[in-house]
Amino acid sequence: KNEVEQSPQNLTAQEGEFITINCSYSVGISALHWLQQHPGGGIVSLFMLSSGKKKHGRLIATINIQEKHSSLHITASHPRDSAVYICAVSDYGGSQGNLIFGKGTKLSVKP
Amino acid sequence: DVKVTQSSRYLVKRTGEKVFLECVQDMDHENMFWYRQDPGLGLRLIYFSYDVKMKEKGDIPEGYSVSREKKERFSLILESASTNQTSMYLCASSPYTDSEGRYFGPGTRLTVL
Predict the structure, then answer these.
(1) What's the distance, CA B2 to chain centroid?
(2) Residues pairing with A9 in the sheet
């Protein structure tokens, strides 16, 4: 069983729709990361959070530590949001600085 | 602006060749990482380093070695490239406490023929 599970694996949306991507994990964590990877490879760190909620522009990330669950929301989605979104956790018991990655959610936003 | 750079975006090598992938960061970060990314498998850690001359194996170190002689530079070495090492290789760095998240390089797509 994967320690970090994301859903859905693939998501197609129309421009303007509200989007939610989910991440569940099974280990104790010190922090959870949301990353964005555009076609071509480069990865950008969107959020790092250990409790509550963070917002940046149209992106919102929430985490529920008790339920071991996080969500990434995109409001008023746009075709430029099309990318792979990756959830990763810093494992308490893991090696210093290491992350456990989910397999990613591929988002395609149609105009 | 923080920056992690990798020496090549695309690389084609032949089986048995020795391959060097270079990564440089300009943020004075202590931690540096090498990952490979394959379809359906996601990102997997090869090696990481938390200080100059220090290294630790990740999940898939076989067939790879690393070198960190200077704080800003972390090299990944494929001693004898094989076709199953065809992949996207991503370097990343973070401060010691990992408090700012992870900064990734643009990636190197390596093809071994």
Answers:
(1) 18
(2) none
Quote the tokens at residue A74: 């995109």
Confidence category of residue A90, pLDDT binned at 50, 70, 90: confident
Question: Whole-angstrom Cα distance, residue B111 to residue A106?
Answer: 24
pLDDT in tens, B1-57: 668 999 999 999 999 999 999 999 999 999 999 999 998 888 999 999 988 989 999
- The answer to whether B12 faces chain A, any CB pair under 8 Å, is no
Residue in A closest to B87 by C-alpha: A41
Tokens of B9: 């975006």
Residues of A in Cβ contact (< 8 Å) with B93: none
Q: Which pLDDT score, from 0 to 100, does residue A1 have? A: 58
For residue A86, what is the nearest residue in chain B, using CA coordinates? B42
CA distance linking residue B18 with residue B49, whole number of Å: 21
Quick check: A42 and B101 CB within 8 A? no
Q: Which residue has the tokens 């960190």?
A: B68
Q: What is the mean pLDDT of residues B66-91?
A: 96
What is the per-residue pLDDT for B99? 63
Q: Which chain B residues are within 8 Å of A91, Cβ to Cβ?
A: none
B6 close to B107: Cβ distance less than 8 angstroms: yes
Which residues of chain A lie closer than 8 angstroms to B88, CB-CB? Answer: 41
pLDDT at A93 over 60: no
Q: Does A38 touch chain B (CB under 8 A)?
A: no
